[in-house]
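Q: I'm teaching a short session on how sequence maps to structure, and I want students to see two examples side by side rather than one. Could you give me a first protein with its sequence written out and its structure tokens following it? Keep the formatting plain so it prints cleanly on a handout.
A: Of course. Example one:
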Amino acid sequence: MAFVLALAPLAQAREGAPASVLAQKPVELGGTHSGNYLAALIAGSQRDTRAAAAFFREALRSDPRNVVLIERAFVASLSNGDMPQAFSLAERLVRQDAKNGLAHLALGVRAIKQRSFTSARSHLARGGNTRRGDVTAILLTAWSFAAVGEYQKAMEAADRLSERNFTLFRDYHAGLIADVSKRTQEAGRRLRAAYQGDKNTLRLVDAYARFEARQGRRDEALNILKSFDEALPRHPIITDSIERLEAGRSLEPAVSTAIAGAAEVLYGLGAANAREGDELASIIYLRLALHLAPDHALGIVSLGDLYERIKQGERAIEVYESMPATSPLRTSAELQIGQVLETLERKEEAQAHLERLVARDPMDPEALLALGNLQRSRKLFADAAATYTRAIALTEKTGRVDWTTYYFRGVSYERSKQWPLAEADFTRALELNPSQPLVLNYLGYSWVDQGVNLDKAFQMLRRAVDLRPEDGYIVDSLGWAYYKLGKYEDAVRELERAVELKPADPVINDHLGDAYWRVGRKLEARFQWNHARDLNPEPEDLPKILRKIEVGLEDDPSKPAAEATPARSGG
């Protein structure tokens, strides 16, 4: 059945956390059973998950033996993070539906938390009635054996996960179990196998590097971490571990207890479900993971990101605020709060929040980058360029400068009419990342627009399209470049493809209208301009579009009337 998500505030803020930026509004419950039930359904359809949980629980008060309502209220409370209520409802549910896998999983997790491992295995044995449930039950059962020192049974249970799709997951957890159980040789073999199978997954890389460092192989650990950092730069966990090792400090194991290992199972499955688009399952797994390990930093980030994705910004902020003050991800969580505030149109709060973070640590380039991105999104391009300059000065000192910073500063310089500085930044960004389609697109189009470096510019634009053939904005740039050079048939070909890729973009539709007009397809041109008008174009573009609808374009093709900038992504 389709469950409705629900989410209420997480547990109290951690020590050292700022006061919440949210003012929680109480849910106004209805006066009738049917009213509360319908309100719950509406709240769920609108993804107001906190209200859905409250309404389902209230509806259940009027019909306490209704198994459908019990199940819905249980799922709502579980995804809501209201664990005592969820466990109470799970107990009621299994009394009426003894085969309910999710209820048994929840009760099994509660038993693990209470260190009642025999009871946990009993529930887990009855909870694995789906493929996903089987994976969860197998690995949690393995950790329940490890918790009481039954290493052999733990490894046998983990090795039941024999499907090829789960090889990495199996070896990763078998390695962690062996490490917790002080079986160093087997831990190394399994963790190495998981790492060799996928060197681009953060958790596998982090766990293996930590294991190698604890065995005294500091240089090998650094190589593992730095290889990941080259592929995916500046992840706070990797950066923190590198800095610790280079300073001669130790690294803690990724998992140090069986209960933390069980939390790691649930976190991994929650993250996997999020990637597959199964939002409800992801929320539930992450909530259960955080019940076992409330300080699981990656679990917190994943849950917050998920709530952003389903446009529950207030819930995302609550989750991010729960990040432990000592975590390497604490600053990232606080920066994300600023971004969510901006998304919620709480612009003054967003800017003040980021400015506080910059003031608190002026040497933190990530805070400066977040502030610069906010300024750029508001078209405060001169301010953004100055902020990016401060960030670049810091990152150049550490040798950890990234192409994106030069690219975004280049965009800010170009939009504030400082082209020589912009060109230098785009060139520098390409030196750092020669095949970056966003930079190729922006610089290539800018050269075409100015009538300089035309051969190289078109090479760049074609290369950008080859790299991102499904990016309508980049295809539009190539089409609009053809238009600017008077190659209208070529322009029509590319702009028609761009509109297919981005049919709701007003700029691309406007551009196609201009190209149609130039090749004599005037009825189609007016259709495209009317479409562009109806797609909420920028205020400065609307009068030009209306003028073209009324009188068309200038007869002289050397003076195109359309002056809108190309829909270059990233600006």
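Q: Perfect. Now a second example for contrast.
A: Example two:
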Amino acid sequence: MMQEEKRLWNGKPYHSLDYEMKQRFGGKVYRLSLQTGCTCPNRDGRLGKRGCIFCSEGGSGDFAESSALPVGEQIRLAKARIAGKLPKAGAAGYIAYFQSFTNTYGPVSRLEPLFAAAAEHPEILALSIATRPDCLPEEMVDMLARLHQKKPVTIELGLQTIHEETAKFIRRGYGLPVFTDAVKRLKAAGLEVVVHVILGLPGETEDMMEETVSWLASFQTAYGGIDGIKLQLLQILKDTDLGRLYLSEEKTSFTDYGMEAYVDLVISLIELLPPEMTVHRLTGDAPKRLLIAPAWSGDKKRVLNLFARRFQERDTWQGRRFCSGS
């Protein structure tokens, strides 16, 4: 395998989302968590009623504004929520992030006005829409392509793993060919795609996780399909089936990563990624009130500081082990 030459992105050894946004928009960009009010086929009975095994009651939208409010009001409240985090210079703009549940699981006639309201807001620079690959019929992809003509649109897909046995265990509800087909159609429509991967799923070895990340890297080479990746630490949350399993006596399949071991794993995986792929996330970001384990993941600043130090100690970078011919 040919080793890529060392590269830095504004001093960082990986292609961060912050770097990508500054390149595109000329300054710091912040995400605003909004809701469409969609549910999920894993919850409404089409595929199941209990959701994915790790999913909280909020469906990953625990920080989002209420879907009962108009989009413009959600944006106002979300801006107020993060106002204390902004630098003195303020923000260059915002990303409208439709995060919770499956945001294309509904009729185009209802969803298009919601997304359009965000796209038409003067401070919104781009939209990020989280969904499932099995909830992207052609008419939905066509609508998203229309929306992309107004503001850049990124579609976030929760793959989590390429291994079918694990996918069945977590109740993902679709096979890998469904994901592949969705990405090809989204890219053909000109849309950007970000993929979620969960690290530390019960029963998965580090080799299996490396196979998932390597497959996504090669998928981009083959189809130009993956623009970004979120590497998500498996966090055990209260009131989830995964949390109940973890608190039971059936813990033998869980890998309780320490912070140092997890950081080293992620750095090794980032070495496999192509340099142009944006790394949107390195760890987890669960509400502390819901977090059962690992406890160290609640101290995000400490975790990110360790990432910076370990990258330097290992003298490595994104793409170091990426093979462009794969």
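Q: What should students look for in example two?
A: Point them to this: The chain has a mean pLDDT of 91. Also worth mentioning: Residues 17-314 form a domain with the TIM Barrel fold (CATH 3.20.20.70).
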